[in-house]
From TrEMBL:
It comes from the Bacteria. Keywords: Membrane, Transferase, Transmembrane, Transmembrane helix. GO terms for biological process: phospholipid biosynthetic process. This is CDP-alcohol phosphatidyltransferase family protein. The chain crosses the membrane at residues 19-35, 47-67, 74-94, 106-122, 142-159, 165-186, 198-216, 222-243. The keyword Signal does not apply. The keyword Transferase applies. InterPro entries: CDP-OH_P_trans (IPR000462), CDP-OH_PTrfase_TM_dom (IPR043130), CDP_ALCOHOL_P_TRANSF_CS (IPR048254). GO terms for cellular component: membrane. Belongs to the CDP-alcohol phosphatidyltransferase class-I family. GO terms for molecular function: phosphotransferase activity, for other substituted phosphate groups.
Length: 253
């Protein structure tokens, strides 16, 4: 079906040209706005804003480098949504670094985490709708998911809801990268899978549930354990597929 004229006009207005640095600075302004409007915590604990700022600068530099490497001069609509999610996740990183102060501000933390989770679905829809998906955007989204899960894992552990083993949930992606450095077969591209997306959402929801005030340590441990088992199974399926693919390729060669 042919797209209506207003839709094509909106697509034509998507960020373009040499605007990527400006777009990143807009994200930085958004982070500043968020830090100045969060009730209480940013002002009573200045390190929250400083940590969030440092986290965003690192993420922004990596995104800018990746865009230049692949010849993209702008974020595009989908990456702009992901950047908004990045702003929220970076602010959450600042809060997590001072977890002992956020019990009284847990509602704000969970609401921001819920918004970040919701935007995870919006950027994918935007990429498909505006046909602006890219390898850089997919990697940006994936690494932001991994960082988000790691932050939630740290929060659950620091607030003593679950033991240190919950950190495996957040570290699984990075352990997989380390394993790939030792076994190159794990670096091969994976097939598209809805399972991975579902398991990712399950991890975020489970960790957020562990942080709810009325969820005790026992219930949080059960929720976290079930989510971790699902994550280990998902990584196991992918690892086995990569192993079989590499072995089949070796046989053919």
């Amino acid at each position: 079906m042919e797209q209506p004229l207003w839709w094509n006009d909106m697509k034509a207005r998507a960020p373009g040209g040499e605007w990527v640095l400006l777009e990143l600075f807009v994200g930085l302004w958004g982070l500043q706005w968020l830090a100045s409007h969060n009730p209480g915590l940013s002002h009573s604990v200045p390190g929250v804003g400083q940590t969030a700022f440092a986290s965003y600068c690192i993420c922004g530099f990596l995104v800018w480098t990746a865009l230049r490497r692949y010849g993209q001069r702008h974020l595009g609509w989908a990456n702009a949504v992901t950047l908004l999610r990045c702003v929220i996740v970076c602010y959450l990183a600042g809060m997590v670094m001072y977890a002992e102060h956020i019990r009284s501000d847990m509602l704000a933390f969970l609401l921001l985490a819920l918004v970040a989770l919701s935007l995870d679905g919006v950027d994918g829809w935007t990429a498909r709708r505006f046909q602006c998906d890219s390898s850089v955007g997919a990697r940006f989204d994936m690494e932001l998911d991994a960082g988000f899960i790691l932050l939630l894992s740290i929060a659950v552990w620091q607030l003593e809801q679950v033991g240190a083993w919950i950190m495996l949930t957040g570290l699984m992606r990075y352990l997989f990268i380390v394993a790939g450095a030792c076994w190159p077969a794990l670096k091969a591209p994976l097939f598209p899978s809805r399972r991975r997306k579902v398991v990712c959402v399950v991890q975020v929801v489970a960790l957020m549930m562990c942080l709810l005030p009325w969820v005790g340590p026992l219930a949080a441990s059960i929720i976290g354990a079930v989510a971790l088992v699902a994550l280990i199974h998902s990584f196991g399926v992918d690892t086995l597929w990569l192993y079989n693919t590499a072995r089949h390729r070796d046989v053919l060669s």
